[in-house]
Design goal:
alpha+beta; Alpha-Beta Plaits; 34% strand; 3 helices; two-stranded antiparallel ribbon
């Protein structure tokens, strides 16, 4: 089953705390998960200052610079993994280096029943 591990942290302190992970550690962990065959995708995101929020309300498109909500922690990246169950996904998430200075939200990916002709489009 696919699980999305969303990495949240405070951008202002992400790389400044003594327990903050170094890029090399994050890359090594990603490679270890990839070598285990459980990694589907993983990416770090640019600063929240580069975000654009899009909404469609009453047929009108609204575009706002910045994140959707003001929070202490921002979405910093993600891991999309293939795990046997939630327990295994939690074990993978718990070892993500950024978990030491932020939080990891683990969510199952919803499977949609898409008709065959739409999948081939």
């Amino acid at each position: 089953m696919k699980y999305l591990c969303l990495v949240y942290s405070n951008e202002q302190t992400l790389h400044s705390l003594p327990e903050s992970p170094r890029d090399e550690e994050c890359l090594a962990y990603s490679e270890a998960v990839r070598e285990s065959g459980r990694m589907i995708a993983a990416e770090a995101l640019e600063s929240v200052q580069t975000a654009t929020t899009v909404r469609m309300r009453n047929g009108k498109l609204s575009i706002t610079d910045g994140p959707f909500a003001e929070t202490k922690e921002q979405l910093a990246g993600f891991y999309l993994v293939d795990a046997r169950d939630l327990n295994e996904a939690i074990q993978i998430a718990g070892q993500i280096p950024a978990a030491r200075v932020g939080s990891i939200e683990v969510r199952p990916v919803r499977t949609l029943n898409v008709p065959q002709q739409l999948r081939q489009a």
